[in-house]
Amino acid sequence: MKSSGFFGPIAGSLGLLILVTVIAPLIGSTHIELRRAFAHVSPDFEIFFYARLPRVVLALIAGGALSMTGVLFQCMLRDPLAEPYTLGVSSGASVGAVLGICFGMRAIGVVSLAGAALVLLIVLGVAVEGRRLSSFTLMLTGVTMNSMAFAIIMFLHNLAGFSQSFAISRWLMGGLDAVEYSTLGWLAAVVVPVCVAVTVRAREWNLLSVGEDWAESRGVSVTTLTTFGYIAGSILTGLVTALTGPIAFVGLIVPHALRLRFGADHRVLMPCSLLVGGAFLAMCDTLSRTVMAPTEIPVGVLTALAGGPFFFWLLRSRRSSLGL
Amino acid sequence: MTFELKSVGFAFGLTEASFETPEAGLVAVAGPNGAGKSTLLGIMAGLRPAYTGSCLYDGVEVRKWSRREFARRVAFLPQMLRLEFPFTAEQVALMGRTPYAGGWFESPEDHAAVERAMGITDTVAFRSRDFRSLSGGERQRVVLASALAQEPRVLLLDEPTTFLDLKHQLSMYRILAELGRGGMLVVSVTHDLNLALQFADRVLVLNEGRVAGDGTPREVLNPELIGRVFGVRADVSAGWVHYEI
After folding, report:
1. From A5, which residue of chain B is nearest by alpha-carbon distance?
2. Which residues have a Cβ under 8 Å from the Cβ of B101 and sit 6 or more positions away?
3. Do B87 and A2 touch (CB under 8 A)?
4. Which of A265-274, A288-297, B20-29 has the lowest mean pLDDT?
5. For B164-179, how does the pLDDT look when each residue is reduced to its tens digit (9 = 90+)?
6. Measuring CA to CA, which residue among A50, A172, A45, A49 is closest to residue A102?
7. Which chain A residues have a beta carbon less than 8 Å from that of B71?
8. 3 state DSSP class of A291
9. Assigned domain for B213 exists
10. Per-residue CA distances from B130 to A65, A89, B133, B140 (Å)
11. Do B103 and B119 reside in the same domain of the chain?
12. A265:B91 CB<8 A
């Protein structure tokens, strides 16, 4: 890869991210002005800094982390249909959250995180054979974990009362809320370093996305890399899911859209997916707040509804340019 | 700089194999299905570290080599490469430079090595095409270019011609034989005894996980051995093997 092939896409993605970050908090059911917000004039100040900005930042981090994990898991499993939820961790987070709701706990996020961590340990415990970890066993273990978690959720849902049942459904749809800046702070403090650590190994991910023997025979330690990728992706997904619930499609569609545009090199794909994934989720969330205001549409509904047709268009234009 | 194998075995596929490779030249590995050819090649490539016995490369046990150092000396080609993602032919070839990677971008030496490798394999013309849009023969040449970009001393190939038509089979083996004459050790698994007869400097025949024959093609590929190992009636004349059941 030449450096121009790297910096071009990064600059474009960064530009998109900045644009969305500036514009998204200004859009909403109440009209506000940036000047009044910065001048501490009520209510523009409160709406901008306490209702909208934290929510946009959460969308940026969550969307970025999910897209990054999507790229990572698709690469590790060599499966274009893999997404952050394929390997079970987010199901663990969901079980935790549903348990929390059923037992009337306050700190749903914490229980959810505990669920995710538990699944991470179980999957690693089951999937590591001897000192080897193959993506195939990882996939089977993750999928099994998903089914079991789903069964537990249905069981709990079945026992839950009316208001709990509503809370469970709402949580499982996923969605973004304004959170404390301190929460955003520690979220970013984990997500950013993990994403950097993953991206640094981009050239090795390129080889692993071709094949395990292919990577191993070119000097990559496949078991170490796969274990690292699984843990890193699980931390990203687990954290985000604990805060937002499962948000469909971001981790699937953004990686593919970027691959169609920029190719498969993970040196471009990984940083771009972090930037564009964040921008994409923030845009979808802005739409979800405004399209039917004051009613909010769950953002997962919008990611799928807005992303799907765009993806079809991308797929078709690419196919005609390839002459397929 | 040779491979020395002493009583090498594996949990499945290989019982006990002992032989030494030459320093350079084309070595064909033949044998019926399940004889242990791919297992043997995988062990030599360092992909099956759980082997028994001793498999030395350059005097050091293969599983003890650092993966990166080993990959600068020994390149391995899979039977067929299937990609899920849109890498270009050149990107696939550049992956061969991973054992030399020092930074984020490939170095000028990396690009020069890939240029040479793509020249040898005649793949320059479609360097920026999606690997998945190439024909079987083109793909196999790109994969070979990637292995040559590793600048190895040894090339291990697992049935490189399985999915190629006649012309591409011949041109693949012509390249391999030339590399062998140029000082590289090329070990290639094949089912085609005539390709082995025509191009190989040495033939190793495996049967039921053991070495059944080891020597020059004309010594080893005789009707008696072919009959015993492959279970067919064979006749060797004018440098060609004819077989029938």
Report:
1. B105
2. A203, B110
3. no
4. A288-297
5. 888 889 999 999 999 9
6. A172
7. 217-219
8. coil
9. yes
10. 28, 34, 5, 14
11. yes
12. yes
Residues B146 and B156 both lie in one domain: no
The whole-number average pLDDT for the span B109-130 is 93
The parent domain of residue B212 ranges over: 3-73+152-244
A42-65 tens-digit pLDDT? 888 888 888 889 999 999 999 999
ipTM field: 0.90
Structure tokens at A60: 């940026």
pLDDT bucket at A240, cuts 50 / 70 / 90: very high
Maximum alpha-carbon separation in chain A: 63
Do B168 and B47 fall within a single domain?
yes
Cα–Cα dist A230/A126, whole Å: 13
CB contact under 8 A, A6 and B105: yes
Contact B3, B44 (CB under 8 A): yes
* Chain A residues near residue B129 by CB distance under 8 angstroms: none
One-letter identity of residue A24: A
Give the model's pLDDT for residue A323. 44
Q: Which fold has domain A3-318?
A: ABC transporter involved in vitamin B12 uptake, BtuC (1.10.3470)
For residue B91, list chain A residues with Cβ-Cβ distance below 8 A.
Answer: 1, 206, 263-265
Distance CA B39, CA B12 (A): 8
Q: Are residues B143 and B194 in the same domain?
A: no
Query: What predicted TM-score, i.e. pTM, was given to this entire model?
Result: 0.90
